[in-house]
Q: What sequence folds into this?
């Protein structure tokens, strides 16, 4: 079967195994074989972290096991999607503690990526809200781990990209809400300096994110629209039902070129006419604007795309972002989907991506000279003390990985101790030389 991540690069042939129960998962013959397997959820990681010759899908392990309506603690199987949780619990007055930019990811995937959202500066990563998880390790046995019980396995699994075993289930705390709507404020910033100042000025807001123009140059370099938000106190507890639009076929990649991207960015920036605009919006367009476009990854053509996301420390923020943005502008490969966020402090998870600073994510269609540009950006990110997000990565070198994730050796030791080294792997772990 042809398999790929959300970026549709790379594409491989793989066998997909879909156990129908937790007992079936433990009984898989893979635990008696000498080969390795790759855990996979809904396949929304962009690159090759959920790709391998033998995939174990969690999609049929999608049951909610228990919920405490006083504490908000939900215990569910790893294949439950964030969309499933929102559909059930928003009408009851509960919301996700942390959510990425799509609701179409599994709980297991959210933990394996230690996903972050628009509230990282306040609430950290998804793993910071996990109370415990049950994981099937290299011998087929299930181990329960938490910050207190087998903490080394817990910190390796949260952000561990599926390399410590197959998550069976997890318990985490939802947050109470009074409305399904968000009180949003949009601020217009004319350049990068203003953009970063806006993040600092509004650091007390629960949610913040900026669309940034990575085509404009000169005095307009890094102009942006910063959107802040907080859960509204009034409004219905409703789930959004709009089906949106769908892209049924691959778009010609030539449609995405410097001229079309510049035109889009100009129109998008100037659609906000005032320096500050207040509105109340449903949580769907605030958190998941691209989920309303079915198969939006087809916009980049049949060759696919890669999303490049990096973080640089706060102390280097302005200088680093200026230098890197200039490099992107000069390349004429900028993206119309470019997102800037401010991160709070990182956590204790060994391969978790965020650290206190600024992160930029943008899409590049796959073309002949792209990877040489990304290699240049890698070197710049390293020079400023930053790192690349593993969940988005499809081509980083093992050398770059080891220089930017200082706890990788601790991570490897945990894999050895729990018998998961060489039993759980992916194209990404092979590329990063984590399976040697």
A:
């Amino acid at each position: 079967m042809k398999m790929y991540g959300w970026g549709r690069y790379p594409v491989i042939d793989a066998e997909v195994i879909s156990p129908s129960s937790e007992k079936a998962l433990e009984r898989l013959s893979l635990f008696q074989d000498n080969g390795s397997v790759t855990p996979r959820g809904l396949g929304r990681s962009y690159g090759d972290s959920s790709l391998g010759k033998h995939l174990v899908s969690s999609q049929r392990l999608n049951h909610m096991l228990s919920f405490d309506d006083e504490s908000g603690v939900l215990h569910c199987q790893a294949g439950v999607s964030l969309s499933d949780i929102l559909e059930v619990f928003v009408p009851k007055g509960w919301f996700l503690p942390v959510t990425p930019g799509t609701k179409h990811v599994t709980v297991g995937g959210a933990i394996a990526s230690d996903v972050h959202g628009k509230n990282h500066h306040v609430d950290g990563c998804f793993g910071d809200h996990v109370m415990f998880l049950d994981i099937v390790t290299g011998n087929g046995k299930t181990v329960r781990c938490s910050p207190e019980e087998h903490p080394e396995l817990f910190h390796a699994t949260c952000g561990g990209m599926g390399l410590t075993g197959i998550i069976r289930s997890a318990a985490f705390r939802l947050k109470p809400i009074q409305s399904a709507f968000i009180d949003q404020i949009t601020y217009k910033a004319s350049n990068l300096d203003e953009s970063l100042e806006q993040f600092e000025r509004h650091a007390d807001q629960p949610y913040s994110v900026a669309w940034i123009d990575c085509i404009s140059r000169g005095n307009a370099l890094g102009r942006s629209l910063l959107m802040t938000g907080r859960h509204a106190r009034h409004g219905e507890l409703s789930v959004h039902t709009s089906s949106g639009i769908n892209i049924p076929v691959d778009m010609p990649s030539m449609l995405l070129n410097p001229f079309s991207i510049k035109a889009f960015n100009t129109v998008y920036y100037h659609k906000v006419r005032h320096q500050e605009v207040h509105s109340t919006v449903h949580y769907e367009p605030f958190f998941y604007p691209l989920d309303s476009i079915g198969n939006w990854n087809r916009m980049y053509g049949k060759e696919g795309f890669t999303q490049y996301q990096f973080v640089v420390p706060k102390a280097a923020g302005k200088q680093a972002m200026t230098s890197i943005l200039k490099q992107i502008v000069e390349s004429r490969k900028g993206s119309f989907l470019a997102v800037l966020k401010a991160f709070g402090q990182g956590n204790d998870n060994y391969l978790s991506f965020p650290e206190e600073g600024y992160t930029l994510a943008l899409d590049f269609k796959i073309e002949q000279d792209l990877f040489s540009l990304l290699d240049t950006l890698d070197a710049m990110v390293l020079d400023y003390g930053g790192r690349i997000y593993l969940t988005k990565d499809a081509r980083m070198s093992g050398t770059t990985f080891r220089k930017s994730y200082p706890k990788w050796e601790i991570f490897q030791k945990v894999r050895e101790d729990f018998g998961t080294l060489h039993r759980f792997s992916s194209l990404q772990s092979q590329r990063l030389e984590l399976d040697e």
The chain is about 25% helix and 25% strand. The chain has a mean pLDDT of 94.
